[in-house]
Amino acid sequence: METKNLAINNNWPADVKVQIQPAQPKKLTHLPQRPKVNLSFSNLSYTVKQGKQDKVILKNVSGTLRSGELTAIMGPSGAGKSSLLNILTGYK
What positions does the domain ABC transporter occupy (predicted)? Predict the structure, then answer.
């Protein structure tokens, strides 16, 4: 395993050394192996009744979530982020 020594420009005593070592990936051997999947959706819309009127929560939303990639769903409060996740997971 390769380690790197860093020279840090600060007020620490000269005998303080910092080493950076690559982290070993954790293996979750107790969990069952699942096949990798990608998730795609297109023209997803979601409407709820609000009194006598319909309120559009999501309108023509499309996207792809790729296996092994980190995906962020961002937006202001009330934009429909939680609704989108609830629909994709089958809660709504």
Answer: 58-90
